[in-house]
Amino acid sequence: VTERDIIGTLEGFHRQHGSDRTFNIILSGPFPRPDKKESAIHLWYPSEREIKHGDIVVLEMTTVYGGYWNQLVRAVSVGRENRELSLFHQACLKTLKTGVDAMRPGVQTSEFVTTMDQCAKKLGYRLNTPVGHYVGLDLVETRVNPEIELILKSGASAIVHPILSSTNGDILFWGQTY
Fold first, then answer.
1. pLDDT, tens digit, 9 for 90 and up, residues 50-79
2. Could you give the count of Cα atoms lying within 13 Å of 22 in the half-sphere of its Cβ?
3. Which helix (H) or strand (E) holds 23?
């Protein structure tokens, strides 16, 4: 299976289920990246690269339904567990949960991003920005960053995907639309 096969299947599924538009990007290969020139956040358009046993596949799966954007960001190991990816994944999930638990109407963006930053530090990672983006009729209405003073209101829609980096320079992100 190639990256192009995976994205083609994903986009076909989106369209068969009523998607108006899609924006799907992918990265595949070893993790951690041996050359450190690319990380697990440098997703791009699909290539003819064949997915191999032991690779990871990172997908940013984005679709528009009824004019509104939503997104999932996921990383999976192919054929066997990748222990380093698993540890990173757990840190991403804990950081994400901490931020989402702090999100509620009346809370300023910088407040819940700060709680995510503190969580990541406790886990031994660094939180990079953007942490996500507010969405609606546009995929990026504004970024979710610590300097954003936007106050959450009921009905707001945001893609929250913390980007974590380890002390050795590896990077991973994971998240979805809320």
1. 999 999 999 999 999 988 899 999 999 999
2. 20
3. strand 21-29
